[in-house]
Amino acid sequence: MKKNILVIPGDGIGPEVTTWGKAALEKIAEIFGHEFVFDEALMGHAAIEVTGEPLPDETLEKARKSDAILFGAIGHAKYDNDPSLKVRPEQGLLKIRKELGLFANLRPILLFDELLQASSIKPEILRGTDILFFRELTGDVYFGEKTRSEDRNTASDLMIYHRYEVERIAHKAYQAAQQRSKRLCSVDKANVLESSRLWRETVQEIAKQYPDVETEHMFIDNAAMQLIKNPKKFDVVLTANLFGDILTDEASQIAGSMGMLASASVGESTGFFEPIHGSAHDITGKDLANPLASILSAALMLEIGFGLKEEAKLLVDTVDAVLKEGFRTHDIADQTTNRFKVLGTAEMGKLVLK
Amino acid sequence: MKKNILVIPGDGIGPEVTTWGKAALEKIAEIFGHEFVFDEALMGHAAIEVTGEPLPDETLEKARKSDAILFGAIGHAKYDNDPSLKVRPEQGLLKIRKELGLFANLRPILLFDELLQASSIKPEILRGTDILFFRELTGDVYFGEKTRSEDRNTASDLMIYHRYEVERIAHKAYQAAQQRSKRLCSVDKANVLESSRLWRETVQEIAKQYPDVETEHMFIDNAAMQLIKNPKKFDVVLTANLFGDILTDEASQIAGSMGMLASASVGESTGFFEPIHGSAHDITGKDLANPLASILSAALMLEIGFGLKEEAKLLVDTVDAVLKEGFRTHDIADQTTNRFKVLGTAEMGKLVLK
Ligand SMILES: CC(C)[C@H](C(=O)O)[C@@H](O)C(=O)O
Ligand SMILES: CC(C)[C@H](C(=O)O)[C@@H](O)C(=O)O
Question: Would strands B214-219 and A214-219 be described as parallel, antiparallel, or unpaired?
């Protein structure tokens, strides 16, 4: 199989982890005899520094022409501390999601048995958890009109949904639920928000087309609580952009660490694969980042982007084997014992490749 | 001390738990020689059934005239399942918050040592946690304009903040932080939302007036994760209406159960005290609800509403003593052992009074 893959390392720890996601893809190509052709492009703070734009036209063009994109992370403390800056790294990520029509963000909460201890949640609560989030990614308060009054004393963001936006992601989520345990939980705030009432109505309609799937509707506040109280009760979770952002970060504690979670954004064309962790400027360049989320993002690219199940499985199994042998990066090591062999980013990356 | 207290039992388990919050106040009046005069009023589904309105004028009038309000819960499955209904119970709660100017919702995460085991989070992660949330309560996407297009295919809610709204709650939160461990974490989504950028700017300004308090700004997705990863790192948490709704429900797992958490809404005049749990229609009338959150709401009324510290402490200590003796309601009992004496709502209520 021949594929063109665009690598966008982005900001912070993005470059150091993406190196290993890319290396994993190269290794898979070698083993299975595929031809993966790589190109690279700038986005975020890294792109602003060079071109003044968070998403240069050249990056967008390359993205459109590629078969899949491997992305690192975005963001920089400079902008976080100065809310008045007009050009911001995150605009690059939001724009590429919109431009490529990446309306469905899949975030599987993959639980490695070996990491049950790394979580702040009790192992007996976690064991057996297997959740697949469908987060809507190109609508909601992320993309609705923003305003700031002239005196700068009033600011607003429009939380808005169109029925077709809810329908298309609902179909994807229901189809996935049919392949899994046939349970779907849709999360909204329909007791307060009109956009959530549209969301709930639409999901109720779509549900009728999937009578074999059991649907539950839950309010976001309750979901944020239930997710840690009893994660096993969830299977496919379908939710809006903002609520999905919050719930999936929260759910990273189920997997032991944010450093373990990968996500796939799909929709109209090219798929976009990235860790769910951020740019983590506090540990950038210190060889402390966990490269496994980038390697698992590569696995998602193989499986969801290219339909290469066996190749994806090899990557996931290798990560599992490395964990079984007791190797850990800092984020997933238990600080209180010496049971683990704690590795830096590069050592962990190399080990997985071996 | 003479005080007029309005009791609004509301919907679902509201009436059965509020009975015990009220009884606790009566007992305190008796012990300390205060005169608490009680009145009662309707709100939510209960009010719609009788008057057609979720917040009848009579209730609002009584509320304005009272010195404090003890509230139960709101909501009904009928409305949750039918997003097209125009008159909804929650409108009553939102309207009374707005009408009484209850802009600051204080949610202390009170950890009883005895309940460390009841949580899904590891006891060693929880031990020593003591968080006080300040949730903004009369702005945000809760109160911004709502629209639905004529073809019903587009729906929106305006997420909007005015600078003064952020300022007044920030002052309250900083003042509380000065009385506590002098750390404040403000939660927003300033990397995406304009209203959050106004929020962050404003908090940065107000922070200058409290140089003895250490301020941290955190994105909501990260906060939802950190809260369960390492709850001890938080002290005073200041956040917007929607984010506060989500974070405080999530935080209820820190306290072992939603059934243990009370909240105080304050602002321009009369204080409003309520459990953070909802109407829980699935257990209504089954003598399964936990009355402790209502009793602890009464304690908050005594302390924050009336400045009666000793009286409040007696109530909290009594709850603590009852837990120490091994008494539990269903939500906080460990199902796997027989160590606890599991009580119904009424038995637990009576026990605390004794
Ligand atoms: C960086 C930020 C804009 C982004 C988001 O909120 O979508 C991130 O948190 C994510 O979840 O991918
Ligand atoms: C019932 C609902 C409107 C309410 C809210 O979202 O504010 C509740 O969840 C709360 O937290 O008090």
Answer: unpaired
Structural Rg of chain A based on CA atoms: 20
SS (H, E, C) B106-167: EEEECCCHHHHHHCCECHHHHCCCCEEEEEECCCHHHCCCEEECCCCCEEEEEEEEEHHHHH
d(C-alpha B168, C-alpha B195), whole Å: 16
pLDDT tens for A294-337 read 999 999 999 999 999 999 999 999 999 999 999 999 888 876 66
Q: Which residue of A has its CA nearest to B257?
A: A229
Q: Is B135 among the annotated ligand-binding positions?
A: yes
Provide the CATH topology of domain A120-254: Isopropylmalate Dehydrogenase (3.40.718)
**Topology of domain B1-104+257-354, CATH:** Isopropylmalate Dehydrogenase (3.40.718)
Q: In CATH, what class is A1-110+260-354?
A: alpha beta
Q: In the block, which residue shows the tokens 């987060």?
A: A135
pLDDT in tens, B280-334: 988 999 999 999 999 999 999 999 999 999 999 999 999 999 999 999 998 888 7
Ligand 1 pocket list (CB less than 6 A) = A 74-75, 90, 93, 245; B 191-192, 221
Is A107 flagged in the annotation as binding?
yes
The boundaries of every CATH 3.40.718.10 domain in chain A are 1-110+260-354, 120-254
Q: Where in chain B is the domain with CATH 3.40.718.10?
A: 1-104+257-354, 120-254
Contact criterion met (CB < 8 Å) for B84 and A161: no
Report the residue among A239, A245, A248, A273 best suited for mutation to probe ligand 1: largest number of ligand atoms under 8 A from its CB.
A245
The answer to whether the CB of A97 falls within 8 A of the CB of A199 is: no
A138-172 per-position pLDDT tens digit:
999 999 999 999 999 999 999 999 999 999 999 99
Residues of chain B with C-beta less than 8 angstroms from the C-beta of A90: 191-192
Q: Which residues contact A308 (CB under 8 A, 6 or more apart)?
A: A1, A28, A32, A34, A302
**Closest to A41 (Cα-Cα) out of A77, A2, A72:** A72
Q: What is the pLDDT of residue A110?
A: 85
Catalytic annotation present for B249:
yes
Catalytic, B245? Answer yes
- Residue B98 tokens read as 């707005």
Q: Tell me which residue in A79, A148, A253 faces B194 most closely, judged by beta carbons.
A: A148
The CA B239 to ligand 1 mean position distance, Å, reads: 19
Name the residue of chain B whose CA is nearest to A85's CA.
Answer: B197
Gap between the Cα atoms of A239 and A247, Å rounded: 9
Measured between beta carbons, the chain B residues lying within 8 angstroms of A217 are 80-81
Residue recorded with tokens 């083993």: A31
A225 lines ligand 2 (CB under 6 A): no
CB B158 within 8 Å of CB B190: no
CA distances from B52 to A104, B64, B82 (A): 41, 21, 17
- Considering Cα of A20, then A22, then A28, then A30, what sign does the dihedral take? negative
Of the listed B3, B22, B62, B189, which one is catalytic? B189
Tell me if residue B212 is catalytic.
no
Rounded to two decimals, what is the model's pTM?
0.95
**String of DSSP letters for B221-271:** HHHHHHHHH-GGG-SEEEE-HHHHHHHHHHHTTTTS-GGG-EEEEESSSSE
Give the residue from B171, B164, B162 showing the smallest Cα distance to B144: B162
